[in-house]
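Saturday, quiet lab. Running sequence design on the structure tokens for the scaffold JK sent over.
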């Protein structure tokens, strides 16, 4: 027996029998053929030309252009346009005339049998057999019984949901958390179906279809998400016909059909099809505007749903347009002091933060917080969320000390109001920990990161994006403490979840590629790190754009990795690109800008251009002393860097107090067993060695080597370099002793 989604099966069959063959026989021009295809697909989905323009080109006003495409009036239609429209309507490549396909979709020498065979091969990957289900149910029998008992679910329901989960190729350890999440969404959908009774009474023509959908979602042997979706689709189509017949009730009809589309969007989310959900929400907005008017508060909820869908897919600039629309309506209709308006201020501000526009966002975060404090008081979860948002914004600007009390306020409220097991409380633990990490207080951060992870694993499950964030952040903190091997496992866990749940083009997935690469580089595995750094850069350029701080970070990291391989000339223009972005976007007083000056200087120094490097090293030190304070690990790195530069210029005596300053800070803040502290022992020793003080140097070299061997292993470049330094120093020391004995 083979279990497969009937909608998917029907779609693939259509691609073979109706799509490709029909086009092969059509005598019209390719452009006209494509136009007819677009119109058929759009009408089948119930979309307007404006909706298609909004989805394909992110601009509803281009509906006239869609009309020209459908009428075959654009003889030189661009392949990129064909690609965007095809993706929006889920048109299969093989349905598109060959002359209009984009380059990577053109494959020569394939007949219809070959195409059918390949599509069948792709379909097989999505098929879940009865054996697959039996293996899973046997392996997870105890957990499935627990889920069944906890949610009062039937075996048939769980097996049906497992089919969709297994089609996603979810890893075994995440099957049960995903199942629970899917069942919770199903429960929400069932509850909301109760509101459809009044619609069934009002429109008897579709009452039977709504009843079918409700029955298909109910507990029992008839349960089927696909049957429910099919019934709602028929209701949607029938109601479209009714709307055309009853123009006098058009506004009310629009509201009612918007409800149906909302439910279809919820089903799409249960089935993990977030792109389809976004399309339904876009149609819902059009109907809400038609039924309620553009300035109705309920219409703003529709804008928010579309924006939230886009934001969760990483399309921040597209989402901003919808968040701002919602804010504009709420300011005009509800007033600037209404809690819903405050929510819109927060949404726009958070979206700006996602785009790296932190200074623009700060004033909106403050506006939202002032409203929440006045309306709800200081003991409300909405106020806690607003403290948290403002603190996160200040953190991103490098103002860590200003952010800390706000994070602590949010945590206290969350623990009191929501309890210590709530997901938002986990966010607060995580944020206080991240703030400590940014201040170099890594040991204080560790137990809070672990608290956040513990809550998320229990409450959200191991496969949730927020749990991935916790794995990532704990990995980052362990890296900061020098525990690179332990961190590597957590970084990979986070990457695997993000690839599966968010997709390979999401900014958070790019963060994970970057972090895995940084961890490999810290272990001296620079060649393994390079393709991951470049992957992160490619995604950030495409999704975030050139003017984003994270894009600057990626340019910087690719450059740093090249520099670690001795490819200094290749690294130089990438460092400069990163710094240009940081100066423009973050400003001249930001810690990241200081890091950029420091890295550019190191690269110049490595090329023997130490005099050019010195002012950049000193610039970085001045910013870090002012912004981070004199006890921060990054400030210690800057003392070390200036000393390193002086050493390169032969100014060994001037370098000595700066090397020792860096060592003192690292011993106090990071501890005597940290790899950075070992680097400082090595550097002070190197400076003493250069001054001919070999006995003093040897003691410190041994200290450094002992830490490197334990923390980084004997094969790490830092360990090997320190070993060579010690051997060289001992040889010089022995030579002096022998010379002294001969002369005695």
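Result came back. Writing it out in full:
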């Amino acid at each position: 027996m083979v279990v497969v989604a009937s909608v998917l099966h029907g779609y693939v069959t259509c691609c073979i029998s109706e799509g490709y063959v029909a086009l092969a026989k059509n005598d019209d021009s390719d452009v006209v053929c494509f136009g007819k295809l677009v119109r058929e697909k759009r009408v089948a989905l119930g979309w307007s030309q404006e909706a298609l323009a909004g989805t394909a080109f992110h601009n509803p006003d281009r509906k006239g252009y869609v009309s020209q495409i459908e009428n075959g009036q654009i003889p030189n239609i661009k392949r990129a346009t064909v690609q965007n429209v095809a993706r929006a309507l889920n048109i299969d490549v093989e349905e598109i005339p060959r002359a209009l396909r984009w380059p990577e979709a053109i494959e020569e020498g394939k007949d219809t049998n070959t195409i059918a065979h390949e599509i069948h091969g792709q379909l097989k990957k999505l098929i879940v057999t009865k054996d697959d289900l039996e293996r899973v149910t046997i392996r997870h029998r105890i957990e499935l019984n627990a889920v069944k008992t906890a949610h009062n679910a039937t075996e048939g329901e769980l097996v049906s949901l497992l089919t969709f989960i297994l089609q996603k190729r979810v890893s075994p350890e995440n099957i049960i958390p995903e199942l629970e999440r899917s069942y919770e969404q199903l429960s929400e959908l069932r509850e909301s179906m109760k509101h459809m009774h009044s619609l069934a009474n009002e429109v008897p023509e579709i009452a039977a279809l709504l009843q079918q959908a409700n029955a298909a979602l109910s507990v029992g042997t008839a349960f089927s998400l696909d049957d429910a979706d099919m019934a709602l689709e028929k209701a949607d189509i029938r109601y479209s016909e009714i709307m055309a017949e009853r123009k006098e009730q058009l506004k009310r009809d629009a509201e009612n059909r918007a409800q149906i589309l909302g439910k279809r969007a919820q089903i799409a989310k249960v089935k993990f099809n977030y792109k389809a959900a976004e399309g339904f929400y876009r149609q819902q907005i059009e109907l809400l505007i038609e039924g309620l008017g553009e300035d109705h508060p309920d219409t703003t909820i529709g804008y928010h749903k579309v924006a939230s869908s886009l934001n969760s897919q990483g399309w921040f600039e597209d989402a901003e347009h919808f968040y701002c629309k919602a804010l504009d309506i709420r300011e005009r209709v509800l007033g600037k002091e209404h809690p819903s308006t405050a929510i819109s201020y927060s949404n726009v501000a958070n979206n700006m933060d996602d785009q790296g526009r932190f200074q623009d966002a700060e004033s909106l975060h403050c506006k939202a917080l002032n409203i929440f404090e006045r309306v709800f008081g200081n003991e409300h979860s909405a106020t806690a969320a607003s403290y948290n948002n403002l603190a996160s914004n200040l953190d991103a600007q490098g103002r860590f000390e200003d952010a800390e009390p706000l994070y602590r306020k949010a945590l206290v409220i969350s623990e009191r109001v929501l309890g210590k097991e709530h997901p938002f409380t986990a966010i607060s633990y995580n944020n206080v920990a991240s703030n400590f990490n940014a201040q170099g207080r890594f040991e204080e951060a560790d137990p809070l990161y672990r608290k956040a992870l513990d809550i998320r694993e229990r409450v959200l499950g191991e496969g949730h994006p927020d749990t991935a964030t916790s794995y990532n952040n704990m990995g980052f903190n362990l890296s900061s403490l020098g525990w690179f091997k332990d961190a590597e496992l957590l970084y990979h866990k986070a990457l695997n979840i993000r690839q599966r749940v968010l997709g390979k083009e999401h900014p958070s997935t790019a963060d994970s590629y970057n972090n895995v690469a940084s961890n490999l580089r810290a272990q001296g595995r620079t060649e393994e790190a390079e393709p991951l750094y470049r992957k992160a850069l490619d995604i950030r350029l495409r999704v975030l754009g050139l003017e984003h701080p994270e894009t600057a970070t990626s340019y910087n990291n690719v450059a740093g990795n090249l520099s670690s391989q001795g490819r200094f000339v290749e690294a130089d223009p990438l460092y400069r690109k990163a710094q240009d972005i940081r100066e423009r976007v973050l400003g001249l007083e930001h810690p990241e800008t200081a890091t950029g000056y420091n890295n550019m200087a190191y690269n110049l120094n490595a090329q023997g251009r130490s005099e050019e490097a010195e002012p950049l090293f000193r610039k970085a030190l001045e910013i870090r002393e002012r912004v981070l304070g004199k006890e921060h690990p990054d400030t210690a790195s800057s003392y070390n860097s200036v000393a390193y530069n002086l050493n390169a210029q032969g100014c060994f005596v001037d370098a000595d107090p700066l090397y020792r300053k860096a060592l003192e800070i690292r011993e106090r803040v990071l501890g005597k067993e940290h790899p950075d502290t070992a680097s400082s022992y090595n550097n002070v020793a190197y400076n003493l060695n250069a001054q001919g003080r070999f006995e003093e140097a040897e003691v410190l070299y041994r200290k450094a080597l002992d830490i490197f061997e334990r923390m980084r292993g004997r094969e790490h470049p830092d360990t090997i370099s320190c070993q060579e330094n010690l051997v060289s120093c001992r040889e010089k020391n022995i030579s002096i002793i022998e010379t002294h004995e001969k002369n005695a």
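Notes for JK: The CA atoms of residues 216 and 223 lie 5 Å apart. The first strand starts at residue 2 and ends at 3. Ask whether to fix the surface positions before the next round.
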